[in-house]
Request: fold
Amino acid sequence: MTDKELFIQIYNENIKRDGADKLLDFLENKSDFFTAPASTRYHNAFEGGLLRHSLNVYECMCAYMERARVKEQYGLTASAESIAIVALLHDVCKVNFYRTSWRNAKNEKTGQWEKVPYYEIHDTLPYGHGEKSVYMVSGFMRLSREEAMAIRWHMGFSGTEDKNSVGKALEMFPLAFALSVADMEASYFLEGSEK
Reply:
């Protein structure tokens, strides 16, 4: 099964609310979600990297949520639908965000300079990161407050926001903390810049 087939299967099995079909149609037919990189040079900076990252976050989030301690101690009881929504769609802000450009690089084997492709940012909707994903998803389907906060604050303390605001959001919305942990695990341990 390809990553795209797996994403669509998980999406369709778990996300049932009004507008979900229109959002999936947008991702498939009006965006580069399934081919875009996840970053320009850090994690999954390759074609299909955003899709792979979204699936990695989903897998990490499911594993995190399965731990009984998380449910009992923190009262985190998100539905399968909420988990799929926040994990699979937290980085929707990156669709139609990168473009391929060219630069010169020295070929290590031949010593010759060659034109090589690379990804650059081409942001046509400068609306932040997490909040942009919330905005985009909300254009198709309604999010619960906890889902919106999870997507908004998924960068946790690695973002550029005021640390007091981040801490308060993660304290108030356990799903946001869980998504932040899953995103960091996927980004730094499963993917990383060297993988």
